[in-house]
Design goal:
Length: 410
């Protein structure tokens, strides 16, 4: 029951995080934005999310998972209410920043709660399963939330989302605990903030934790940038497909995680030596899928877009390998700051990738030639910039992997 509620909190965090992806065109019309301005809605949200990971990790080692999950749900509720009634883009950005802040408390706290109740290979499987189920929040934002947005309008739809966060907050208060044991984790609660910060510095000096950071940096960003922001503008406006196709594609990406997630979990628990090969394979597959879409001349057929997006979606479940690495190199009491640092990686890469894509799309937009800012030519070059981000991630992942292997041999 405890982990189900923690999983529900993560599910709703994913829903709140990705709600802008399906509402991107509505937001562009409501606030009269260009591509770069639209990207700021998501980028500022992720900047706050990534920037809060290390402070949240320190607080997690100090106060435990339950309190941080409660605080996260409350802040996300406030953020979505702000977005619901925002009179301008600037206020909406503040609301999305609050959503990003609340979201930042949720994921690593859920991972920490799983490791409070289970350990070893079983923890590897359970954290992968819960995170995979939590990703169905993207389906909720792609279908039920889109239905609410279409039928009820902007303010009621986002208000309902905000209310759901407050309901989850009450469930967390009433029915969760940090540990399986009846007593709370006394060592965690005895830590001062100074000691927790010292643990963070110790974790960052660990090459295995840095390897986890670059694992997340390399695997997650393309999946997240599509699901959070660019799916609707790219598929609807540039490729001429329907909102229903976007909803179907985002849903299929989530459902595909139910296939790939357990496979990745089994590899991590049964053959941990294959984790690095798994990272290289997933990233290579993602790059190939993007090359196919970028090089395809003109409008791509729906089946090709759908297939490539499924391949791209594997990056989400694969990013959990980062947290499987971190739990191997640090004890449970220090896991909060280690996972917080690792989690920065993917979202740092995501908001860099998002912003650069929007910047390139705007730079290439020519009103005299293009009927829409979001056209195939602009997106082709906008999406190409992500290869630079991925290359940096893989280079540092390989470097830290060698350092970690050498330290284990000594």
């Amino acid at each position: 029951m405890v982990l189900s509620i923690a999983g529900l909190a993560y599910f709703l965090a994913v829903t709140q995080r990705s709600s802008l992806g399906i509402a991107g065109l509505d937001a562009s019309e409501r606030f009269n934005t260009n591509a770069q301005q639209l990207a700021t809605l998501a980028v500022f949200q992720l900047v706050v999310y990534a920037g809060m990971q290390i402070p949240v990790g320190i607080l997690l080692d100090r106060f435990g998972a339950k309190i941080l999950l409660i605080v996260g749900a409350a802040i996300m509720g406030a953020g979505q209410f702000t977005v619901a009634f925002a009179p301008s883009l600037e206020v909406a950005v503040v609301g999305r920043m609050l959503v990003g802040m609340g979201d930042s408390f949720t994921f690593i706290s859920m991972i920490r709660m799983v490791n409070g109740w289970y350990s070893g290979p079983k923890a590897s499987k359970i954290q992968q399963y819960i995170s995979t189920i939590g990703q169905t929040g993207q389906f909720f934002s792609a279908v039920p939330f889109w239905f609410m947005l279409d039928r009820l309008g902007w303010e009621p739809a986002f208000s309902i989302m905000a209310s759901a966060s407050l309901l989850v907050m009450l469930l967390l208060i009433s029915f969760t605990a940090n540990e399986r044991e009846s007593h709370e984790h006394s060592e965690t609660h005895a830590l001062s903030l100074k000691q927790a910060f010292g643990q963070l510095l110790e974790n960052v000096r660990n090459s295995g934790v840095r390897m986890a950071f670059w694992t997340h940096f390399s695997t997650q960003p393309t999946t997240t940038s599509i699901s959070l922001l660019w799916a609707a503008p790219y598929l609807v406006t540039a490729q001429g497909l329907s909102h229903e196709f976007v909803a179907l594609t985002l849903t299929a990406m989530v459902l595909f995680g139910f296939i790939t997630g357990p496979i990745i979990a089994e590899i991590c628990s049964r053959a941990p030596k294959l984790r690095a090969r798994l990272v290289y394979t997933v990233v290579s597959s993602t790059v190939i899928a993007w090359i196919v879409l970028i090089l395809y001349p003109g409008i791509a057929p729906g089946w090709l877009l759908f297939s490539c997006f499924l391949v791209i979606s594997i990056g989400g479940p694969a990013s959990m390998v980062a947290f499987d690495y971190s739990k191997d190199f640090v004890p449970k009491s220090k896991l909060g700051s280690a996972n917080g640092f690792a989690n920065v990686g993917g979202f740092l890469a995501t908001f860099i990738m998002m912003y650069l894509t929007g910047l390139v799309v705007d730079l290439l937009y020519n009103p005299a030639v293009d009927s829409s800012r979001y056209n195939v030519h602009s997106f082709r070059w906008g999406f190409a910039v992500q290869f630079l981000v991925i290359a940096v991630g893989l280079a540092f992942f390989s470097l830290e992997r060698r350092k970690t292997e050498n330290s284990l041999k000594q």
